């Protein structure tokens, strides 16, 4: 059983758009570019990307920000995109007449997009990192030798994890 994440209604604004006429995979191409970005940066990115899904996403992000500003009184400069998801909608089915009295089915898929904007000024100490914080991403190869001096990156080649077949 999947547990649903509880939203904080005082620091998050959301918008939902249903029955957008496109495949979910095509919408996910645009969504992967904006996940985790700030509101203003997202609007700039969506204006310049060449994907077809960018215009509905632009309208939806703008709507979610307007909901957050109007309903909760949040500041638009401190909004980030905390959650974006695309789900399949209903499929519009039509029949096209073909030769010799036959028919050909046409399936046009739809999708539902949900965007949640979060205010980071409430939890500023959680999102903002000082220069003395320790970053230790063991999976990506970052290892911190000294707590307050420098960080060294051991790349994949020196660990023997990647090699050529040449």
UniProtKB/TrEMBL annotation:
This is Large ribosomal subunit protein uL22c. Pfam families: Ribosomal_L22. The globular domain of the protein is located near the polypeptide exit tunnel on the outside of the subunit, while an extended beta-hairpin is found that lines the wall of the exit tunnel in the center of the 70S ribosome. This protein binds specifically to 23S rRNA. InterPro entries: Ribosomal_uL22 (IPR001063), Ribosomal_uL22_bac/chlpt-type (IPR005727), Ribosomal_uL22_bac/org-type (IPR047867), Ribosomal_uL22_CS (IPR018260), Ribosomal_uL22_sf (IPR036394). Keywords: Chloroplast, Plastid, Ribonucleoprotein, Ribosomal protein, RNA-binding, rRNA-binding. Its main location: plastid. GO terms for molecular function: rRNA binding; structural constituent of ribosome. PANTHER family: CHLOROPLAST 50S RIBOSOMAL PROTEIN L22-RELATED, LARGE RIBOSOMAL SUBUNIT PROTEIN UL22M. Part of the 50S ribosomal subunit. The keyword Nucleotide-binding does not apply. One of its GO terms (biological process) is translation. It is found in: Plastid, Chloroplast. Belongs to the universal ribosomal protein uL22 family. It comes from Alnus nitida. One of its GO terms (cellular component) is chloroplast.
């Amino acid at each position: 059983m999947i547990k649903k994440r509880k939203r904080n209604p005082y620091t998050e604004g959301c918008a939902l758009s249903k029955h957008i006429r496109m495949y979910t995979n095509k919408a996910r191409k645009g969504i992967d570019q904006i996940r985790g970005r700030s509101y203003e940066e997202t609007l700039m990115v969506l204006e310049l990307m060449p994907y077809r899904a960018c215009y509905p996403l632009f309208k939806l992000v703008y709507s979610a920000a307007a909901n957050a500003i109007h309903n909760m009184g949040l500041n638009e400069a401190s909004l980030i995109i905390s959650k974006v998801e695309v789900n399949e909608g209903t499929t519009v089915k039509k029949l096209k007449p073909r030769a010799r009295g036959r028919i050909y089915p046409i399936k046009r898929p739809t999708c539902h997009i949900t965007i949640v904007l979060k205010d980071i000024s409430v939890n500023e100490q959680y999102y903002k990192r000082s220069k003395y914080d320790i970053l230790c991403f063991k999976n990506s190869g970052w290892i911190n030798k000294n707590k307050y001096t420098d960080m060294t990156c051991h790349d994949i080649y020196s660990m023997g994890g990647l090699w050529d077949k040449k």
